[in-house]
Design brief:
By secondary structure, the chain is of the alpha+beta class. It has one domain: 2-Layer Sandwich (Alpha-Beta Plaits). Helix content is 26%, strand content 31%. It contains six helices and nine strands. The protein has an eight-stranded antiparallel β-barrel. A hairpin with a 4-residue loop joins strand 6 (169-179) and strand 7 (184-190). Helix 4 crosses helix 6. The protein is globular.
């Protein structure tokens, strides 16, 4: 049902952070989930990761740099997010809601649609049909110097196939954008941060051919600031 994702990355000031999150989870998200076509939402706090030297990130000052929190809305189709668009929707909100939204710093928005998706071996642990996992890894990027046909080949015939066998993986979605700087995205879902950290970083060590393909491809991509993000869900609460 959730063929489209509206994703927002942002930072919050220490003063007022808890009030903002309470408003987000108790007022803003429930209000938007009443809109036609919206089928789910999840709120995440990002983990601090060690820098990955092989990754390239854009230095375009027009690309916002918020990376502390991620908010995702799922919809049946992308145009559910056009009735109205996020900008118009926020402009129509009450003044108190707009004050809360104004607390966000470095806000970056992308609307993605599915290019492809696969289930992982722990897909049955998904809490409900449209629920997002307790832990995600979310990459957002442009092709950079990489041929996009090679990227499609790598995801379809390499990375996503490997994720179907990775312990702790609930599923993976390769995404392309209709709104926002990043043309491409990838959403990995895991049963927990511990399972992600245990299995994902070394999953290609047993396949030298795949590891070499990854090592050649990944440095050519151009990521959004902070991408990829690893984050744990803070709403709905993890069961």
């Amino acid at each position: 049902m959730d063929q489209a994702l509206w994703i927002t990355w942002y930072d919050l000031p220490a003063n007022g952070r808890e009030a903002h999150l309470a408003w987000l989870h108790e007022t803003y998200i429930p209000k938007l989930l009443k809109k036609p076509g919206f089928v789910g939402a999840a709120s995440y706090a990002c983990e601090k990761l060690a820098p990955q030297t092989r990754l390239r990130h854009t230095d375009d000052p027009a690309v916002p740099t918020g990376n502390s929190y991620i908010l995702l809305f799922g919809a049946e189709y992308a145009h559910a997010f056009a009735r109205p668009t996020p900008h118009k929707l926020h402009a129509e909100l009450p003044q108190e809601d707009q004050k809360m939204l104004a607390m966000r710093a470095g806000e970056r928005v992308v609307i993605f649609i599915d290019e492809g998706r696969v289930d992982g071996p722990d897909a049955k642990k998904r809490e409900s049909k449209n629920a997002l996992a307790p832990c995600i890894q979310l990459g957002s990027f442009g092709a950079g110097t990489l041929d996009e046909q090679e990227m499609m080949d790598w995801y379809a015939n390499g990375r996503m196939s490997a994720m179907q066998k990775l312990p702790g993986c609930i599923g993976v979605r390769k995404l392309v954008s209709v709104v926002g700087w990043a043309k491409h995205g990838v959403l990995y879902e895991f049963v927990s941060l511990a399972e992600r950290n245990k299995h994902f970083p070394t999953h290609e060590k047993s396949d030298p051919k795949m590891e070499a393909w990854t090592d050649e491809l990944v440095p050519k991509l151009l990521h959004a600031p902070g991408s990829p993000n690893v984050a744990q869900r803070i709403w709905p609460p993890i069961k």
